[in-house]
């Protein structure tokens, strides 16, 4: 039943003489959960930037739901159903959790039930709390909830657990597994304890190349991956 949602073919991104992404072939299906790891400068953020339309591939094609999005503007891509959450939470501090959700739902193509979304992100009991009074982790979850309010088909997360306690990090892994019933997710992450807890389809980027892809258990046991990344951390 799983259809291809995103398909990248031979994607390269060059900045002058520097190749930030090199000949990437990659695809994911709907409602899948994938993680991208790799050393600093490996091309992880560039990878996400190509998917949101922030950057155009220098070579290659990106198809989303069967449509070439390689040259589309950001807002067009966003309308097609790709949402991104950045590293720094940008919720409205003086509004409550529920009010922040109202803002996010405003103008959303198909409004999901706010109660369902807050349930998914584990904030039902906190709906009347001001966003300013949430913990750092809770703010991140609220922002994930706000991204989900637009009912994206693909949610991109850049280091979703940055600054979280280890308990919040573990809770975030469980949260993403709940969310993937509604949307595909690609998370870029440095925190290996989180990647281990996610225990999912993992892509290793190294010097702009797709170095390995597989279940995290295989990636973690891979000697070559340890040499270029995991072993050094
Ligand atoms: N706008 C840009 N102009 C020039 N070079 C860039 C630009 N963006 C990224 N790069 C370079 O491309 C390479 C890949 O960068 P990218 O930010 O994708 O790496 P990353 O894997 O996200 O690293 P980090 O783990 O540090 O976030 C790096 O060498 C970086 O310096
Ligand atoms: Mg980056």
Automatic annotation (TrEMBL):
One CC-aspect GO term? plasma membrane
Which part of the chain is the ABC transporter domain?
Answer: 6-232
Molecular-function GO terms, alphabetical: ATP binding; ATP hydrolysis activity
A Pfam family of this chain? ABC_tran
The organism sits in which domain of life? Bacteria
> Is NADP found in the keyword set?
no
Gene3D superfamilies given in the database record: P-loop containing nucleotide triphosphate hydrolases
Protein keywords = ATP-binding, Nucleotide-binding, Transport
Q: Does the keyword 4Fe-4S apply?
A: no
The record's function comment reads: Involved in beta-(1-->2)glucan export. Transmembrane domains (TMD) form a pore in the inner membrane and the ATP-binding domain (NBD) is responsible for energy generation.
This protein is called ATP-binding cassette domain-containing protein
